[in-house]
């Protein structure tokens, strides 16, 4: 199923949000789109991430280990304040984009801005149940101060599980990148094992972070929300395989998102080219740079698209045998279950991706 990729110009938001999941080649897409050199776009030095800080606070406090009902008041307040700081920094950048008459570009992993009352109430691990949207006082605690431009109304429709009301989300054009779970999930686990060696997470935190990430639930929820709430600016989806093997899909995605296709690049590495980790130095949290170096290592070492990272055909059962050799039976079983659980959402989203 191909989706419409043209919308009335006057209705296009001047804010572009790329929703991703770790290891879906989202940083590669940002590199290919050449966001930093797009003449009509503004972002930041972290590949568009603004809510990474809140995620790292949750990681540092080991909050993945326990349900939110067991959090202390201090922990809940610290997380809420971290989210507020991220939003304030994002809105400062949005204001700059508006002054410069540019599109504001940001890229976030979907679960980073799910309301913590919902995100951290889920049962983690292989026995995880279907997620349930949490409402009431706990969800209300994490509501953030929003810019005046949002207006006084605050609506949270059924498919909106995020920190933000519908009125704020509608200020953004939503776009998505997906990747076959049998490629993304084991890649994520490899990366998290390296992060664990830095001391950023222990075994329980590794399991919690894996469970939080190895799902397309949040992506599907946001996509369905956008289809209902933004009929004049339908969401765009691109698959990682198309980013690598189908340049015409990238060009179409670029144009539909309001970016300049003349700046798209499929090779890089010139003397003026910045490393993807250049913007990740954080004196207050030096581990940020170390984690970024792990997550961006393949991209940073590349001079262009690496096609052997994206096989055109994937056999889950064959891949599962490889995971047993690499990770052991227990972890391989967890990954395989997460892959099969994610496949209905992946196939649903894949059928709606931008195609040529």
Lay out the secondary structure.
Layout: E1 15-20, H1 26-33, E2 41-42, H2 52-60, H3 73-99, E3 103-109, H4 116-119, H5 137-141, H6 166-169, E4 173-178, H7 181-197, H8 203-213, H9 217-229, E5 236-239, H10 240-245, H11 247-256, H12 287-295, H13 297-301, H14 316-327, H15 329-350
Parallel strand pairs: 1-3, 1-4, 2-3, 4-5
How does this model look, in words?
With 356 residues, the protein is α/β, with parallel strands linked by helices. It is built from 15 helices and five strands. It has a five-stranded parallel β-sheet with strand order 2-3-1-4-5, with helices on both faces. The protein is globular and about 55 Å long. The N terminus is likely disordered. Keywords: Coiled coil. InterPro entries: P-loop_NTPase, Pyrrolopyrazine_biosynth_F.
Task: Characterize this entry briefly.
By secondary structure, this protein is an alpha/beta fold. The chain is 46% helix and 7% strand. It contains 15 helices and 5 strands.
How many helices? The count is 15
- Estimated share of beta-strand residues: 5-15%
Query: What is the name of the CATH topology?
Result: Rossmann fold
- Written as H for each helix and E for each strand, in order along the chain, the element string is EHEHHEHHHEHHHEHHHHHH
Uncertain regions: pLDDT < 50 for 5+ in a row?
1-12
Query: Major β-sheet, in short?
Result: 5 strands, parallel
Identify the overall geometry.
globular
Computed over alpha carbons, the radius of gyration is 19 Å
Q: What would you say the CATH architecture is?
A: 3-Layer(aba) Sandwich
Mean of pLDDT: 85
Q: Which structural class matches the secondary elements? A: alpha/beta
Could you estimate the helical fraction of the residues in percent? 40-55%
Work out the number of β strands.
5
Number of domains: 1
Task: Give the N-terminus to C-terminus distance in angstroms.
Answer: 11 Å
Strand order of the largest sheet: 2-3-1-4-5
Q: In CATH, what is the class? A: Alpha Beta
Keywords: Coiled coil
Coiled coil: 80-107
